[in-house]
Amino acid sequence: MIDKSYNFQLSENFIINNFLKKLNLNKTGTFNFGNDAAYLNTSKKNKTVVTTDTIVENIDFFSQDPPESIAQKIMCVNLSDISAMGALPKTYTLNLSINSTIDKIWLKKFTNRLSKIQKDYNIYLLGGDISRSREISLTVTCFGESKLKNIIKQNNSVAEDDIWVTGDLGNSYLGYKILKHRKLKIEKKHFNKFKNLYLYPKPCMFGFKASKYINSATDISDGFYGDLQKILNVKFGAKIFKDSIPISVDLKKIMKNNKTVKFSELLSWGDDYELIFTSFKKNRKKLLNLAKKNKVKISLVGKIIKKNGIFDDSLKLIKNISSFDHFC
User: Fold this and answer.
1) What is the pTM of this model?
2) Within 10 Å of residue 291's Cβ, how many Cβ atoms?
3) What is the pLDDT of residue 322?
4) What structural domains and CATH numbers belong to the chain?
5) Strands (DSSP E) along the chain, which ranges?
6) How does pLDDT run across 230-239, given as a tens digit for each residue?
């Protein structure tokens, strides 16, 4: 619990009453945060899907990052996981560990962004906890809902499955490079665009829409290669069509003018929060039509093969593959 003398007038009750209660939307199961626990109204027809993630200062975000960005990131991480399971998000809990740099203005900006995200995805805050910490740390546990038959497994691929990716890759990677390497040759409009794509990522929620056509899926949070390996799970390999990997026109131009912006690093970088999924070849047309209907970009980037490893178009093994790891 937070001491009432902590950070001037800030206390646990003050934060709950002034910033967090507005996020429970007066849902019965929250008891308006008057209890130490809450309940979910679960459906008999559907299963509850649960995921949880933690982001930590100086690892997943930086102390100078806007509070709106930190809110966006912790929710995006969880929402994309729910999507990759073929579920719809319903509610979430928030554990907030804060230090003396946090004040009322920070909390207002942070919770206002959470409120906007809630409206965008029709979710609400179920409860959580607040504590004192040297570094800022946030944990969100997100609850989703899906019919059992539509829940997507991470490694349920079969040989000859198509490999698909949503959206464009590398936007977050370039945004990070821009913030850390100011000498990049880049126009101001691109500077702001990619910086914001890094600070304010958006989850791809296509998983629920396409679940009946998907065999395996995960979100791209640790890098294209790293998350593809999760799907392969040592059982299979992949042949990748590198020219088909979706990269925006602007990013391609910037790569030509900046040798430090590398294609190989782009594919090992996380935080895109797009989906990578596999499907039977016979579903191509259905998936493309569904994507078009829902205004989601999808790209066919490879296929599952029986030989272990990740290979290029010529079946040459791609070596020195890396991905994000909190302990590396």
Assistant:
1) 0.90
2) 18
3) 65
4) 12-150 (3.30.1330.10), 162-311 (3.90.650.10)
5) 47-56, 88-98, 124-132, 137-146, 162-166, 216-219, 237-240, 275-279, 298-305, 309-311
6) 999 888 999 9
